[in-house]
């Protein structure tokens, strides 16, 4: 199933210029090129980084203007990123508003390019709060077929409150999960600092209970009205017990609030996915999808 185990991942704290797609795209191309030259096999940008997050939730911006700013999967930004992917043999994932021509609607999506060009897009299954005023809900998981096996993809709220998606990917063989996110930190707004701390704990829990690696890329700095916290990171299982935490941060800094590129070379063979292996004492794996299916049908 896995041709290779070791890969270098880059995660980007990115501060978008709200509503200025061309400017953001040029900067993203520069970052992707620089990261590729540094040896990154996979480059992860944040949620909605192409236009900025606030542009699409802002009530004063007309829906028609939002549709004009969005792009289909084969649009100019994805084509530009695909050229970098093909030139350097890298995978690039970045957040953008996707325009569906046939349905005349928008999705909060993550576009994916690879060594062969445009791969496709994951549409956020669980839009958060006011995102529902501008985008439709996605309805399908999305895995990237790579030499390191399938890589799962979710966006922000998908990852923090809905563990079913990540668990599905791991059951399908994923050893790495990607989380482009837009996690805010407004110090003058009650509860937001606590909310960002939960960003740490939910990602840690995802790694612990699934025994996999996880890369998360967050927006950083002020958008139109919101302050985003950064903290992009690459997390995974520990290789020794001599650390205070149960999860090791292989790259990035969860307290870094500056625009940066962080790297880690990780060995996915350490992602043992133990729940999906045979338990010798039980004669079967501990994970029991047959039972969970019955529970879901009863909900």
Account of the 3D structure:
The chain contains eight helices and 16 strands. With 299 residues, it is an alpha/beta fold. Strands 5-4-3-2-1-14 form a six-stranded mixed beta sheet. The chain has a six-stranded mixed beta sheet with strand order 6-7-8-9-12-13. A two-stranded antiparallel ribbon has the order 10-11. It has helices at 21-37, 54-57, 63-69, 76-88, 157-161, 163-171, 192-210, 289-297, and strands at 6-12, 42-44, 91-100, 105-114, 117-123, 143-146, 149-153, 176-181, 213-218, 220-222, 227-229, 233-237, 247-252, 261-267, 278-279, 284-285. It has a single domain, classed as Nitrilase/N-carbamoyl-D-aminoacid amidohydrolase, CATH 3.60.110. The mean pLDDT is 91. The longest helix is centred in the last third of the chain and has 19 residues, at 192-210. Helix 1 packs parallel to helix 4 (76-88). A hairpin with a 2-residue loop joins strand 6 (143-146) and strand 7 (149-153).
Poorly predicted segments? none
Order of helices and strands: EHEHHHEEEEEHHEHEEEEEEEEH
- Helix and strand content put the structural class at alpha/beta
CATH architecture annotation: 4-Layer Sandwich
Tally of individual helices:
8
Mean of all residue-level pLDDT scores: 91
Amount of beta strand = 25-35%
Largest sheet: 6 strands, mixed
From the 3D structure, determine the CATH topology.
Nitrilase/N-carbamoyl-D-aminoacid amidohydrolase
* Main CATH class: Alpha Beta
